[in-house]
């Protein structure tokens, strides 16, 4: 179940796949950020996040988060379609890793 403060920061702000009313599902990067970053810290961090990731940390993000993400089993557009963008949490996580 998503938390409103994180959903507003991660999903509404950065995710092309976000749809209101689907709070029962979440991607791996969302879950990772909720577990590891306080909402206040996240709010400060996203002020200067480029909405278009450069994918420079993809190997790390794949190993750290994507391998455990439920969408990898059921259809991650980013991993299955070369032109699809990653989820919103991916962009934020890339910034954290840099």
Pick out its properties.
98 residues, mainly alpha, 0% strand, globular
Question: How would you portray this structure in words?
Answer:
The protein is an all-alpha fold and 98 residues long. It has one domain. Helices cover 54% and strands 0% of the residues. It contains 7 helices and no strands. The protein is globular and about 30 Å long. The N and C termini lie far apart (29 Å). The model has no long low-confidence stretch (mean pLDDT 90).
Write the layout of secondary structure elements.
Elements: H1 4-14, H2 28-36, H3 39-45, H4 58-64, H5 70-74, H6 77-80, H7 88-97
Helix pairs in contact: 1-7, 2-7
Produce a short descriptive summary.
This protein is mainly α.
Structural class by secondary-structure content: mainly alpha
Query: What low-confidence regions span 5 or more consecutive residues with pLDDT below 50?
Result: none
Shape, principal axes of CA atoms: globular
Radius of gyration, in angstroms, nearest whole number: 12 Å
> Helical stretch count?
7
**Please, how many domains?**
1
Question: What's the SSE pattern?
Answer: HHHHHHH
Beta-strand segment tally? 0
Task: Give the termini distance in whole angstroms.
Answer: 29 Å
- The percentage of residues in β strands lies in under 5%
Overall average pLDDT? 90
Please outline the major beta sheet: none
Helix content: 40-55%
């Amino acid at each position: 179940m998503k938390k409103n403060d994180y959903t507003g920061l991660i999903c509404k702000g950065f995710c092309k796949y976000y749809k209101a009313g689907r709070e029962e599902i979440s991607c791996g990067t969302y879950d990772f950020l909720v577990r590891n970053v306080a909402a206040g810290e996240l709010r400060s961090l996203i002020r200067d996040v480029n909405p278009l990731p450069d994918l420079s940390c993809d190997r790390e993000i794949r190993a750290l988060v994507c391998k455990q993400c439920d969408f990898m089993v059921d259809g991650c557009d980013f991993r299955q379609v070369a032109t699809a963008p990653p989820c919103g949490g991916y962009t934020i996580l890339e910034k954290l890793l840099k």
